[in-house]
């Protein structure tokens, strides 16, 4: 059977658009039937499309991806998938955004060595960049909190009749659920308001 060329596309959520990756695959000449698309995050490899693709791939097939981060979420995962594909499955990989990462070229020892070095460097840089972004986000949130910025949803305002119904509940004349119902809030919300008052005392 003739060797196949497959294109693997991943977008992080159903809201993201895969068009850019699809266009790149078509320009490379990949048949529509050989395009595999996953619409979920790369946080793990329980991705149906990728799993199906792994079962299909045979030695000397070629897998095309737009960028190296389509293979995993961190340095270790990218390297592990690269090893699985090139060594165990004996598949060639082409990374469109990085022409040096094309295992069809230079199958000799030097070509393989250069490809492996470039891959490790790129994976390390990609992970370092992600960690730096997360660090800046965390620092930004901490700075905002220090300035008194509140995060999350704004607490629900207590209706004017809350105090009266709370007193009725405390006196045992109505249940908490009945009080919450009259206030038009969830039972949990009513109890949270009471607990907040108790902790403020």
UniProtKB/TrEMBL annotation:
Which residue ranges does the record assign to the Resolvase/invertase-type recombinase catalytic domain? Answer: 4-148
Q: Which SMART domains match?
A: Resolvase
The protein's matches in Gene3D superfamilies, at most eight in alphabetical order, are given as: Resolvase, N-terminal catalytic domain
A Pfam family assignment: Resolvase
Q: Which UniProt keywords apply?
A: DNA integration, DNA recombination, DNA-binding
Q: Which residues form the active site?
A: 12
Q: Which PANTHER family match?
A: DNA-INVERTASE FROM LAMBDOID PROPHAGE, SERINE RECOMBINASE PINE-RELATED
Q: What is the protein's given name? A: Recombinase family protein
Q: Which organism is it from?
A: Agathobaculum hominis
């Amino acid at each position: 059977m003739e060797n196949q060329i497959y294109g693997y596309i991943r977008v992080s959520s159903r809201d993201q658009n895969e068009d850019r990756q699809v266009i790149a695959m078509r320009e490379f000449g990949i048949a529509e039937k050989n395009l595999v698309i996953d619409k979920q995050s790369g946080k793990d490899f329980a991705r149906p499309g990728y799993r199906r693709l792994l079962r299909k791939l045979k030695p000397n097939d070629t897998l095309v991806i737009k960028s190296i981060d389509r293979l995993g979420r961190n340095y270790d995962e990218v390297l592990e998938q690269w090893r699985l594909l090139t060594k165990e499955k004996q598949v060639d990989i082409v990374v469109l955004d990085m022409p040096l990462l094309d295992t069809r070229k230079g199958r000799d020892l030097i070509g393989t060595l250069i490809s492996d070095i470039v891959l490790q460097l790129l994976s390390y840089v990609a992970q370092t960049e992600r960690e730096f972004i997360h660090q800046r986000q965390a620092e930004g949130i901490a700075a905002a909190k220090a300035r008194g910025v509140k995060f999350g949803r704004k607490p629900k305002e207590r209706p004017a009749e809350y105090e009266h119904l709370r007193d009725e509940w405390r006196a045992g004349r109505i249940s908490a659920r009945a009080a919450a119902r009259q206030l038009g809030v969830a039972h949990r919300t009513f109890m949270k308001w009471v607990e907040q008052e108790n902790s403020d005392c």
